[in-house]
Specification:
Oligomer: single chain
Strand content: under 5%
Structural class: mainly alpha
Number of strands: 0
Shape: elongated
Helix content: 40-55%
Order of helices and strands: HH
Length: 61
């Protein structure tokens, strides 16, 4: 391998390996089958419901 390709190849390999880090804090470790464990949804206000209704009306064909 030519010397000019060693540094870019090494940097590319290190970048690729750095993307493989395991982020244990980002996901639950213990899950219960069939039970949603995320944050509960909040109710939409009347304004938000009406805005969604208008947007969906625009998308009709």
């Amino acid at each position: 391998m030519p010397r000019t390709l060693i540094l870019p190849t090494l940097l590319l390999a290190l970048t690729a390996l750095g993307a493989c880090q395991d982020h244990k804090d980002a996901r639950p470790l213990h899950t219960e089958k069939g039970a949603y464990q995320g944050a509960p949804d909040t109710r939409l206000s009347g304004e938000q419901v009406e805005a969604l209704r208008q947007r969906s009306f625009i998308q009709r064909f």
